Amino acid sequence: MGLKMSVIIPMYNSGNLVSETLDSLVNQSIDKSEFEVLVIDDGSKDNGAEVCAEYVKKI
Fold first, then answer.
1. Do residues 14 and 43 lie in contact, with contact meaning Cβ atoms separated by under 8 Å?
2. Whether the Cβ atoms of residue 51 and residue 21 lie closer than 8 Å to each other
3. Rounded distance, CA 31 to CA 57, Å?
4. For 13-40, how does the pLDDT look when each residue is reduced to its tens digit (9 = 90+)?
5. What's the pTM?
């Protein structure tokens, strides 16, 4: 049916919180093919990019 929703997550040094946010999105009842998640990293110096990369591998 196509995308119905885009979720944009701004991230800056919040690697400890991004996993909680992504868990919440993954557990939504909407069909996963109907939404996209865009994480925008503004030059973080923590492990946020690695956390996001692990979620990409899971999904």
1. no
2. no
3. 18
4. 998 899 999 999 889 888 878 889 999 9
5. 0.79
